[in-house]
Specification:
Largest sheet: 6 strands, mixed
CATH topology of the largest domain: Aminopeptidase
Radius of gyration: 25 Å
CATH superfamily of the largest domain: Zn peptidases
Number of strands: 20
Bound molecules: zinc ion
Structural class: alpha/beta
Shape: elongated
Helix content: 25-40%
Length: about 450
């Protein structure tokens, strides 16, 4: 037995890596596709599998907690004393749908090891976050009989569906989830450098429908006398931006604040690699957007407004002289820190309603919304993550700002009022795509990272 608790935990993990991988396959076999109602029972079965494993490991209060959507899983171990920090560890156990199924080499819920890679839906996004945290807990508890910090686990079942009911759930379980800091373990890295997510943007999505006559009309009989809904949609879409891309919704930028100095440095450091990466991903040489900002600022630190689709009228081959009864568009707005998604949604609705006239009917639907968030990139908690990666990967993580949205981060910050940092425990590729895999070379490495983190947080 090793006298140093950290070393003893690592030794236990190393001795059991193969067994852990075998056990991980059990969780991967459960098709917990949160978005598809046909898999409802499987989602619950995955939640119950996790609870049973928590109970086996001695995690307390392990339970499936119902939400208005997919169930969440909670458990805690709070015996490190009042002076030790309490950390809320977050991951999600739901997975993306699997189609197109014919592109999978092996079935997505029959875990298959090829070339040192474990192929299965959810292998890196994000059952790895759930399972590796549990194995870090097991390694520490079995080796030492105790944990250096207090931990609470919260595992979500509807992340891949945009977390539609999680805010209400967190609101209703504020005391249960109270902690000093939350750690988001979702996804991870795909190459030899660990990654930390430094920020995410918020989002508001919506849909506008414009209704005219009760049915499609002959444009020869009614053109010029009946107001055409597609013209109104074109007018609305054109009015969203000025010629250089500035969003014209009144008050849209009112609450935007400059990014922090630490984040500003990150933006500058990533500018060149972000452009090179974007050229490769888009096949474009020249980019577009408000000229007052750099590429990476526009991509991660400025708000956006994008029309995602326009519909209405005849779309088939050749001509059809129709005056359509209905037209519309879908849009998504990415938000940055301090922009309240509810306020932005209201400003967008007011802007669209300013087109109101007595010849058309306008309908607006807000489909989803979430806060943006900056995560910790410096200070003791971020350092505990950085040191954990550095000790196990041999290099410090690269900090990246994400242009996309992770609603749960903003919920933790705004509802629980706690800071958030990120520590992805997956390593591999093809998340959300066929042949998702975990690169097993890093399976043990990332359990080590999670173990180091527990001890670093105790310092
Ligand atoms: Zn994920």
């Amino acid at each position: 037995m090793n006298d140093v608790p950290l070393e003893a935990s690592l030794a236990y993990a190393h001795a059991h890596t193969e067994a852990f991988i075998e056990q991980y396959k059990e969780l991967l076999r459960i098709p917990s596709i949160g978005a598809d109602p046909a898999y409802r029972d499987d989602v619950r079965r995955a939640a119950e599998w996790i609870v049973a494993e928590m109970q086996r490991l001695g995690i307390e209060h392990a339970q499936v907690l119902d939400t208005a959507g997919q169930p969440a899983v909670y458990g805690d171990y709070l015996h490190a004393g009042e002076d030790a920090p309490t950390v809320l560890l977050y991951a999600h156990y739901d997975v993306q749908p699997v189609d197109p199924l014919d592109l999978w080499v092996a079935p997505p819920f029959k875990p298959d090891i090829r070339d040192g890679k474990l192929f299965a839906r959810g292998a890196i996004d994000d059952k790895s976050g759930v399972f590796l945290h549990l194995k870090a807990f097991e390694s520490t508890m079995v080796a030492n009989g105790t944990l250096p910090i207090n931990v609470k686990f919260i595992f979500e079942g509807e992340e891949e569906s945009g977390s539609p009911t999680m805010e209400a759930f967190i609101e209703a379980h504020k005391a249960l989830l109270a902690a000093d800091v939350a750690v988001i373990s979702d996804g991870g890295s795909s190459d030899e450098t660990p990654r930390m997510m430094a920020s995410v943007r918020g989002i508001v999505t919506g849909e506008v429908r414009v209704y005219g006559p009760k049915r499609d009309l002959h444009s020869g009989s009614f053109g010029g006398v009946v107001h055409n809904p597609t013209h109104m949609v074109g007018k609305m879409v054109a009015a969203l931006h000025d010629d250089e891309g500035r969003i014209q919704i009144p008050g849209f930028y009112d609450d935007v604040v400059p990014v922090s100095e630490a984040q500003q440095a990150l933006i500058a450091a990533n500018e060149e690699s972000a452009i090179a990466d974007a050229r490769e991903q888009t096949g474009l040489e020249t980019f577009w957007g408000v000229p007052d900002y750099t590429y990476y600022e526009r991509a991660t630190a400025r708000p956006t407004c994008d029309v995602n689709g326009i519909f209405g009228g005849y779309q088939g081959m050749g001509a059809k002289t129709v005056l359509p009864a209905e037209a519309g568009f879908k849009l998504s707005m990415r938000l940055v820190d301090n922009q309240d998604p509810k306020d932005i949604a209201a400003k967008f609705e007011a802007f669209i309603n300013s087109f109101t006239c007595d010849t058309l009917k306008i309908d607006i639907k807000i489909l989803s919304s979430s806060w943006s968030a900056e995560t910790l990139v410096s200070g003791p908690v971020a350092q505990a993550v950085i040191d954990a990666y550095t000790a196990t990967w041999g290099k410090a993580p690269k900090m990246e700002r994400a242009g996309g949205s992770v609603p749960i981060i903003g919920m933790f910050q705004h509802v629980l009022d706690i800071p958030v940092t990120s520590m992805g425990l997956g390593h591999g590729s093809n998340g959300h795509s066929p042949n998702e895999y975990f690169d097993l070379e890093y399976f043990g490495t990332n359990i080590d990272t999670a173990i180091h983190f527990l001890y670093n947080m105790a310092k």
